[in-house]
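New to this. Help decode both lines:
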Amino acid sequence: MNEMDPSTTTPWAQPEEELLNSLKSSSQGLSTVEVQNRLQRIGPNVLKPRRHDSALRSFLAQFTNPLVLILVFAAVVSAIAGEWTDATIVIVIVVASAALSFAQEYSASNAVEKLRAQVTIKANVLRDGKVQPVSAEEVVPGDIVLLSAGSLIPADGIILEARDFFACSLSRQRRWSPAISCCSQRAA
C-alpha cells in the first residue's frame, strides 16, 4: 500500500486520527521539512497540461458541424448537376463561415490561456502549527487546508470539520450544480 494513499480503506469513512496517521500528518499540519520532502517525491499539485490542437486541426474541426456537412453535400450535388455557380457560392459561404468561427475560437482560446497564466490560486494551510498562505501548487497530501467563504478548493481532500458549509461545483462537462452538505465535526 502506498504510504500516502489511504484510498484502499475508504478515507472518507475513517476516523480523523486514523486518516491523519495514514497520511503521516497531524491536526497541527505538516512540518516545512516534510512538505519539501513530499514536493520532491510527489511533485507539485498541478494538472497535466491540456493538449492543444494545431491551428490547422482547429480549422478543420469547423467542418465537423452537421449543418456544414449538409451544405458541403449540397454543394457537391450542385456541382455534379452542373450548377457550378450555386456550388461555388455555397462553398465560399461555408469556407468563410469556418474561417470566421476559427478566428473567434482561436483568439478566445489564446485569451483564456493568457488569463490562466496570470491567475494563481492561493490556499491557507496549517504548517508547523501555524496558518500559512501558499500557492495551490505547493499543497501536498496530508496538508490541512483551511477554507472560508469564497475559497477555491486547491486539491482533493476530506472535510474534517465544517459549519454552514455550501459548495458549488463546476464539473468537467462545464455544468454548474450546487453541492450542499450539512456536515458537522467528524466522529473521531
Notes: Confidence is low (pLDDT under 50) at residues 176-188. Residues 55-118 form one domain.
